[in-house]
């Protein structure tokens, strides 16, 4: 695992989505994305790349309604592949499968974008070596330019066999209603640092990564929190290296006036846009 996704950095871990058709969605994540089932019940399935770490969990609540309208919530979650060769194998598989996708080079990374059958966004990407990232005045240079698909495909002719076991949750990108307020929350309360801006978007990280979390108002400033029974993001985890780091943030959340609820799996809170966050320690969802 790269240095940006391990202690002492605070990172993003498991993402939990609400879906309308659990069986169909699990099948998509197995066959198109290449994740494996870690745990399965009638209402919930946990997916993994390495057979140990939960990366994505899917739940089918009762009376769920499809994703629609302009709300805060998930723009995409992003699975980070260890090498460019892994991206080559995935890209070739995707082309052969005929599933629709988008692609972009962001200078710091090369990315493929897919939407699952329920409308949830997914990014599959590889990072360029951090020595190649360009920084100026504390900000990293990022853009959206055409992906060199031919160059990527030349990196490997290995057959597709699912996602590499070294795949991790690289970052999460969220729709919010108030960019400044939410950015302040992630920085001043949760301890991240803004490292890049894009029109109506901010990118925050720890440890000098290009972003562990991104937020945008591309669905419109002031968008409300979605109905609780709508398809989409249920919660995602922020992973702390130790209890001291987590308790510091919990105390900052309480000072800020945010609700913090203790649960068996950690502590639950939410950002100003209503995106629910589970605060966990490294061994869970890292």
UniProtKB/TrEMBL annotation:
Q: Which UniProt keywords apply?
A: Metal-binding
What InterPro entries does this protein map onto?
A: Glyas_Bleomycin-R_OHBP_Dase (IPR029068), Glyas_Fos-R_dOase_dom (IPR004360), Glyoxalase_1_CS (IPR018146), VOC_core (IPR037523)
Residue ranges that the Swiss-Prot or TrEMBL entry lists as coiled coil = none
Q: Which residues form the VOC domain?
A: 11-127, 168-286
Pfam families referenced in this protein's UniProt entry, alphabetically: Glyoxalase
Matching PROSITE patterns, A to Z?
GLYOXALASE_I_1, VOC
Kindly give the Gene3D superfamilies that the UniProt entry links to this protein: 2,3-Dihydroxybiphenyl 1,2-Dioxygenase, domain 1
Q: Answer whether the UniProt record assigns the keyword Metal-binding to this protein.
A: yes
**GO terms for MF:** lactoylglutathione lyase activity; metal ion binding
Q: Which SUPFAM superfamilies match?
A: Glyoxalase/Bleomycin resistance protein/Dihydroxybiphenyl dioxygenase
**Is Metal-binding a UniProt keyword of this protein?**
yes
Membrane-traversing stretches:
none
Which named protein is this? VOC family protein
Natural source organism: Paenibacillus albiflavus
């Amino acid at each position: 695992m790269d240095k940006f996704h391990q202690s002492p950095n605070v990172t993003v871990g498991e993402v939990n989505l609400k879906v309308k058709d659990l069986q169909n969605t699990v099948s998509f994540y197995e066959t198109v994305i290449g994740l494996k089932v870690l745990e399965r019940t009638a209402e919930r399935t946990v997916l993994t790349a390495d057979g140990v770490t939960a990366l994505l969990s899917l739940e089918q609540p009762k009376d769920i309604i499809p994703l629609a309208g302009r709300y805060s919530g998930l723009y995409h979650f992003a699975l980070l592949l260890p090498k460019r060769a892994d991206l080559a194998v995935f890209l070739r598989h995707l082309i052969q499968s005929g599933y629709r996708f988008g692609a972009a080079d962001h200078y710091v990374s090369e990315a493929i974008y897919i939407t699952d059958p329920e409308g949830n966004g997914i990014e599959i990407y590889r990072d360029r070596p951090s020595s190649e990232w360009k920084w100026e005045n504390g900000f990293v240079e990022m853009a959206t330019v055409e992906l060199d698909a031919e160059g990527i495909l030349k990196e490997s002719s290995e057959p597709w066999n699912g996602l590499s076991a070294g795949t991790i949750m690289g970052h999460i990108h969220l729709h919010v209603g108030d960019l400044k307020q939410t950015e302040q929350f992630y920085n001043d309360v949760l301890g991240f640092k803004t490292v890049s801006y894009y029109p109506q978007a901010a990118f925050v990280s720890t440890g000098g990564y290009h972003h562990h979390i991104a937020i945008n108002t591309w669905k419109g400033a002031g968008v409300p929190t979605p109905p609780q029974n709508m398809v989409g993001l249920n919660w995602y985890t922020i992973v702390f290296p130790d209890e001291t780091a987590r308790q510091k943030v919990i105390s900052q959340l309480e000072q800020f006036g945010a609700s913090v609820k203790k649960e068996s799996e950690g502590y639950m809170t939410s950002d100003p846009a209503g995106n629910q966050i589970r605060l966990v320690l490294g061994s869970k969802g890292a």
